[in-house]
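User: Sequence for Fosfomycin resistance glutathione transferase below. Tokens please.
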Amino acid sequence: MLSGLNHLTLAVTNLNRSVAFYQNLLQLRLDATWDTGAYLSLPGLWLCLSLDPLRNAEPAADYTHYAFTLSAADFLPFVERLQSAGVKEWRDNRSEGASFYFLDPDGHKLEVHVGDLASRLNACRQKPYAGMKLFDDQSVEPQDLR
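Assistant: Structure tokens for Fosfomycin resistance glutathione transferase:
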């Protein structure tokens, strides 16, 4: 059985630039580097940067992204630091909780978000998405996907 998210690996085109972005601007801890990669971390998150010169630096058109948790008190100063560094925003916040959607130097879609799954589900109980079903009873059987 799966027990959690193990790590994220992001393909990058310039390792030094990406390490500087994640370590200095986002303030992840730098744990290791090697010729073609680096490990950085936050409590509960292991991030691997892997050099891939063939990576397309343009962001994909889909909504796939990686979100980091941020406290409400830290949200505005953090966003202001990113904006003053010229970090590009890729989407406006349209959901519960304060969020800022931005790109890393290789176009990976990132988000900082205030809140968690519980706060999101509480907001959805007040204003559910179209066709939404909330499963408070954990005895619901998994769907057959065949």
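DSSP finds three helices and eight strands in the chain.
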